[in-house]
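Standup notes, protein team

Yesterday: finished cleaning the Candolleomyces aberdarensis set.
Today: Prefoldin subunit 1 structure.
Blockers: none.

Input for Prefoldin subunit 1:
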Amino acid sequence: MATLSDDTLRKILVQIQQTAIQARRSLDISLQQSQAKERERRILQLTIDEITQLPKEVNMYKGVGKAFMMVPRDTMEQQLKAQEKELSDDISNLNKKAKYLEKQYNDAQSQLRDIFHHAPKTS
């Protein structure tokens, strides 16, 4: 079996370390985005719950820039539910991405452990 030069091994090691670092950063960002969207979704759920408890004849207003526009209640509920579904889809996609990045990070860490475990001992 042919052995690799020290320079080649160093390059491989650096590449694996960079992959691990980038995967960890991306994983952290993905988790933060998921948490933010989860908070936003929860606020929408609470808003929808509050709106459904109001009488049908109550006027609904939606912020448009610095002004407010009257919106039918059904339209308001549909818009909020659409936003909630969109956020749920985003959260689902971010969770899938996080699982992929976590696997990528764990694989890189495993490769690093294998390299150091099998490295020749110098005395």
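Follow-up from PR in the comments: The first helix runs from residue 6 to 53.
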